[in-house]
Amino acid sequence: MKIVDIKATTVTMPLEAPLRHSNGAHWGRFVRTIIEVETDEGIVGLGEMGGGGESAELAFQSLKNYLVGHDPFDLEAMRFKICNPTASLYNNRTQLHAALEFACLDIIGKKLGVPVYQLLGGKLRDDVPFASYLFYRYPNEKTGAGEVRTIDQLIEHAKDLKERYGFTSHKLKSGVFNPKYELECYLALANAFPNDSYRYDPNGALSVEESIHFGHAIEGINNDFFEDPTWGLNGMRRVRENVRIPMATNTVVVNFEQLSANILNPAVDVILLDTTFWGGIRPCIKAAGICETFQLGVAVHSSGELGIQLATMLHLGAVIPNLTFSADAHYHHLVDDVIVGGKMEYCGGKIRVPDQPGLGVTLDRDKLNQYAELYLQLGGYPYDRDPGRPDWYALVPNSNWADHR
Ligand SMILES: [Mg+2]
Predict the structure, then answer these.
(1) Which of 22, 231, 277, 405 has its CB 3.0 to 4.6 Å from that of 205, i.e. a possible disulfide?
(2) What burial letters (b/e) apply to 99-136, b meaning 16+ CB within 10 Å?
């Protein structure tokens, strides 16, 4: 089988409300690039990458010179063709490779008539548990609904998500407001649902000393882990030496060099595996194997996803034995999806792993066109700008917090 074409389409998917984070916001929508890899046998594989626009589409187009004629079964050869580690110093293609790996696995599964998890060692679970992903939010521009800023709003939002989706673990995305206020929010949340578990993730916005202070203050609650309170392996190591909560990261251990550094001189206990950041599903499984050997925890990270990327997270979550924490997903913040059947459903806080051949999702062509049109209307948005504070930018560690009053 040979690859004959690669198509990339940028789409914009509206969110229930703009999501605030330590660097700015998702401005009420996600921009994603949907990949279709076509073969000479008529089988088409699907992939997805965060961000988009002309430059992303051109980046995929440029890889046609490398991959037209390539057999999609030859996954390792594809890695070295486009992601040779020394050549990558000049052309960082890890995320492009991830989207193409998803598509090739989809093609292989469809060709063999088996779901992707069968290609990866077989599934160990039928569904993958997810944590709620709680964000501070601006109100929806059109409806005025959905704001999360006060403690009451945060608890109401968590209650609503619990009722709708069945979450029993909650991740509070933070690093937006003064850590003193965010501590009040986190403790109030834990107090509201005392049987659930929690994770706090300010995206590295706190200083080492603030992180230690925060960590001491939350030691009494049921924490899954303390996620990237501060920036950098050395900062995380200093926090880890001073708190009694497992430390987690999706930012400072995102490749094998960093993973080996963390094993030689531990700074993080739980590695959050992201199928895009690590360059595909298979590198995540390789990393999970190393974590299993060294008895580090793993979980599945979300960098924002539509249904195709979600399917990669489900197949990953299905096959790794050491998945001891629920996964993260932004998915419940989306208002729609580009796959046939609409958004996948949560049942008891879990999503079922697709059993159809390949990734198990089919592109809804009308939805793809609808949201590609929306991208053309609205364009991109700057992830590292806050629509409520146009002149502000984040320092690391940050000290200029948004006003919560
Ligand atoms: Mg994180």
Answers:
(1) 22
(2) bbbbbbbbbbbbbeebbbbbbbeebebebbbbbbbbbb
